[in-house]
Design brief:
This protein is mainly α. Helices cover about 45% and strands about 5% of the residues. The chain has two domains: about 1-40, no CATH class; about 45-70, no CATH class. A two-stranded parallel ribbon has the order 1-2.
């Protein structure tokens, strides 16, 4: 766990690999409960409003623009 946990979207693939190697499902589940499973990108993401997205887009397209102002 070099980066603090297992990405949640990788658990299914890891389970398949464990099954192919003959690991019983209950052993895998027990191992998984002792791991830190990270949320999958987007699981708890909050969408930014249009003005913030616009500011980011402008700054990406023109890096000389002023610093982002997170207006709500």
């Amino acid at each position: 766990m070099k980066f603090g946990g297992i990405p949640g979207d990788k658990v299914a693939r890891i389970r398949i690999l464990a099954q192919r190697d003959g690991t019983p499902d209950d052993a895998f589940t027990g191992w998984l409960t002792r791991q830190s499973v990270l949320p999958t990108a987007g699981d708890d993401a909050i969408a930014w409003n249009a003005s913030i997205r616009r500011q980011i887009r402008v700054q990406i397209l023109d890096p000389d623009t002023e610093r982002l102002r997170f207006e709500h």
